[in-house]
Amino acid sequence: MQIAILLLTLSLSLSVFAEEANIRQYELRDGNSIELKIPTSWKSELKDGPQIPYATITLQPRTGTSFDILISPIVFRGNDASSLSAKDIRRRVQAGIDVIRDRAVEKEVEVKKLNGATGPGYYYTVTDRAPKSGEYKYMTSGMVRVGDLAVSFTVLTNDGQQKVVDEALAMMRNANHYRRNQNTQRSARK
Q: Where does the signal peptide begin and end (predicted)?
């Protein structure tokens, strides 16, 4: 009996901490779209057009402590991202580390796996050595293959915002790719 009460209490308390989310589909170039499950407390905007190289989805809090999330689905012309291997993605993520290494507190930056629902991915987290006023202290950045898209992402946060990073990584793990006039996902979950 005590175990049943404990389990019920635990399940009720976990549901209090789980934030509601909306599934949003963002139309991209060339008939592609990406679907993300976004917490309802976040707002989003899609920036796209001929003047920018890649569409970018920006996510921020509706209220409260600020953070920024930038997601850029890369549409490959003539050759899809499904040919992009885990090794290629890891190499691109490592190149990102090499660019910011001098600004990071960490001497060694660990590349971590982020296997999505439809493809491989990697990411890393670094601490800015000297953030200026109004800048963020932490950056989590990486790339994951989502169907036929290579999706780069960056999460910018400050102290006490690990939950934002965790939710962003979960969102990237569960992202889906669709093509125009497609009734089913390009890379269905198994």
A: 1-18
